[in-house]
Amino acid sequence: MIQAYQNFLRHSFSLTTVTKRGTYWLVTLINLAILAVFYIGFDLLFALLTAVQWLYFFDLVVAFFMIVWLILATLFVLVTLIPNITMSFRRYRDTGLPTSCFMIEPVLLLSFFWFCSENLNNGYASIWSIFATGLFLLADILVKLLPSAVEKNAK
User: Fold this and answer.
1) CA distance 49 to 4
2) First to last CA, the chain
């Protein structure tokens, strides 16, 4: 597990290495677990901040820790952004699909932004933004679940 994550970080800018299906999902699971820890920590700090809002000194201390926690979470996302993109590209390429299929990723990101903007503006999301985001997310997951072309040729 640690070896897979080390390889993930080591091959951050390499588009020529191979990313197998198991390695991709293991690294994705580790990244999601780390993001869940950041989310739970931020949620607990926010609950603590509302509990001590009348105690001015503790209020400042908790607010300081929230800012530090948010900076750490932002740094984690920024550090893993490029490695995640290259790993996704390698996974698309390793399935044997044409590299033009990788266009699902930016379209998914744009549809997610559309979904979020609809939700933030009106308080609800349009059915089309939900449908588009879900469709591209499903396509992305299904492509990444495909076996590698090397695995298919070996059988």
Assistant:
1) 37
2) 26
- Angle made by CA atoms 106, 110, 115, in degrees to the nearest 5: 145
- The C-alpha atoms of residue 52 and residue 60 are separated, in whole angstroms, by 10
Verdict on whether the full-model pTM lies above 0.90: no
Cα–Cα distance for residue pair 147/128, rounded to 1 Å: 31
- Mapped onto helix, strand or coil, the DSSP state of residue 11 is coil
Supply 60's token pair.
């400042």
CB atoms under 10 Å from CB of 46, counted, come to 13
Residues 136/113, Cβ–Cβ less than 8 Å: no
Closest Cα partner for 24 from 84, 99, 100?
Answer: 84
In 3D space, the residue among 153, 145, 32, 136 whose CA is nearest the CA of residue 92 turns out to be: 145
Tens of pLDDT, residue by residue over 1-48, are: 888 888 888 888 888 888 888 899 999 999 999 999 999 999 999 998
Could you give the CA distance from residue 64 to residue 69 in angstroms, rounded to a whole number?
A: 9
Helix, strand, coil percent content, the chain, rounded in steps of 5: 85, 0, 15
